[in-house]
Known about the structure:
73% helix; 207 residues
Amino acid sequence: VAAEDLPPQLKAEYHALLADALADRGQVPQDDGYGATGDLAWQIVRHAVKGSAPERWLPLLGRALEHLSTVMAHETACELTERVLAMPQLAAGTNRVVVLTERARHLNAIGRRDQAELVLAEAGRIAEEVGDEKGDRKVRVIQIFQWLALAQYDQAFEEAEKVAALAERLGDEDAEGQSYTVKGQVRWCQGRYEEGRAFHERGLALA
């Protein structure tokens, strides 16, 4: 009998057991988000989210999404994040902000910018409600890259400056570095190459 032909409850148990078996064979710890290779993390998560205990392997979600991004499987990543967001026990509060921002990033990659805008708006609202400053900065960084892709350079540069200043004050070198990288890209697109190079170098130093 094929798995898809099983009754819903048995199908969920099947996927849960398969996720556990893959993790056991790969000796993957439950509490280590980087305890598996990207492909293995994806294989475990894809079954876990269809299983009866999806939260068991939630720590591997970020690693799985990184893998999907690396292999440019953006449609698959959108499907995965949609499924996770439909489960309140998996995506609430700051966790929901993380999944929403990842979803927006992959939607942007396949040109679905209107949907990405809606997803970012929800992420920003939740981040503000729960006081998630890191999530808020990530939302703003993705928004900056959207403006950059649409050649809205002044908006992108102005927001990047704000995020860079805030990130520097809070010690978030990742967001600060991304902001400087965007500023460099903006200046490069505007033909201000020396200034752009300086911003890129600053971003690389913080990477």
